[in-house]
Design a protein that fits this description.
The chain is of the alpha/beta class. It has ten helices and 15 strands.
Length: 330
């Protein structure tokens, strides 16, 4: 009598398009190879990048299973991994760069596994936004007390964490958002001021009033096309703008001559560039985990969707109505 083959479920995309392209399929369960961990999924995280991959804006090869982030428990270890490597059966781990995470089981390279505390709620153990905030705050300017900082999309997952981290460092923070309700969320996160830029993304005049005409020392822009030129105009002399997203479309080309008169800087940011080295990723993750443990970094609530409702989670993100972390449950 043959042993029954173990199975797993995953969300699958065969063609680029809308949320309806996410379908649930059953397949054979994977087996860990050398250096891999087989993980039973607690929750895959849902991120805007997943939406861009599903609709074809961020190119991946078809067909594919979306998702890069998750948290779960180790159920099997591959060759070359033992307790000396810090991993054991039943251990809870997280990851932020493992393609195919919209699944009930996933193979995680040991180099990508981040141990997370048992005491953390699911939203605290999903580290994609926390790691993004960590590299943004630490890599572009040594933030000092009194620095003036602008955070676009400040009511979003990364935005709220940026506000909290910057306030922890003593900065004066203004956040932009698209509704009065979201502006209230930004103030609750700790921002000194919030600007509702509505649908026309007009924020420059109000920002100059708030900063007595000086502008900001540092600005984080994940909106892209609709905001980046004005973000540069809003910098103080010697200020730095970091472009790390394109929610409104790809950022426009910026001529170096635009930067020279006020000695301002424009930098690009990608989480994956700052976690490519596993020890560096672990160090950054430790900063996030330590902030959560200390209580000054609060991840807020989360909204869970069953795995077969992944398309609904994507619709919520595309509708710009999210103010908390979205994740899936097996």
């Amino acid at each position: 009598m043959h042993e029954k083959t173990a199975t797993m479920q995953h969300a699958f995309v065969k063609e680029f398009g809308g949320p309806e392209q996410l379908v649930l399929e059953t397949t054979d369960a994977p087996q860990p190879g050398s250096g891999q961990l087989l993980v039973d999924m607690e929750a895959p995280g849902v991120n805007y990048l997943d939406v861009l991959q599903r609709n074809g804006s961020a190119r991946v090869s078809l067909p594919f299973t979306p998702g890069l982030e998750g948290v779960g428990r180790i159920v099997k270890v591959g060759e070359g991994i033992d307790s000396a490597h810090g991993f054991s059966i039943g251990q809870r781990i997280a990851w932020v760069n493992v393609p195919g995470s919209y699944a009930t089981q996933v193979l995680v390279p040991a180099t990508q596994a981040i141990p997370v505390p048992e005491s953390f709620a699911t939203v605290e153990a999903l580290l994609f936004q926390g790691l993004t905030a960590q590299y943004l705050v630490s890599e572009y300017r040594g933030v000092r007390p009194g620095d003036r900082v602008l955070v676009h999309s400040a009511a979003g997952g990364v935005g709220q964490l940026l506000v909290q981290w910057l306030k922890h460092l003593g900065a004066w923070v203004v956040g932009t958002t698209s509704t009065d309700a979201k502006a209230a969320v930004v103030r609750t996160a700790g921002a000194d001021a919030a600007i509702n830029y509505g649908r026309d993304y007009a924020f420059h005049d109000e920002l100059l009033l708030l900063t007595e005409g000086r502008g900001v020392d540092l600005a984080f822009d994940a909106v892209g096309a609709a905001t980046l030129p004005t973000t540069l105009k809003s910098l103080a002399r010697g200020g730095t703008a970091v472009s790390f997203g394109s929610a409104s479309g790809p950022p426009p080309a910026i001529e170096p001559g635009q930067l020279i008169p006020r000695s301002i800087r424009l930098a690009g940011g990608s989480l994956f560039a700052y976690i490519a080295d596993p020890p560096e990723m672990q160090r950054r993750a430790t900063d996030v985990i330590d902030g959560i443990r200390a209580g000054w970094l609060r991840m807020g609530g989360g909204t869970a969707y069953n795995l077969d409702r992944a398309g609904e989670a994507h619709r919520e993100i595309e509708g710009r109505g999210t103010q908390c972390k979205l994740y899936l449950t097996p």
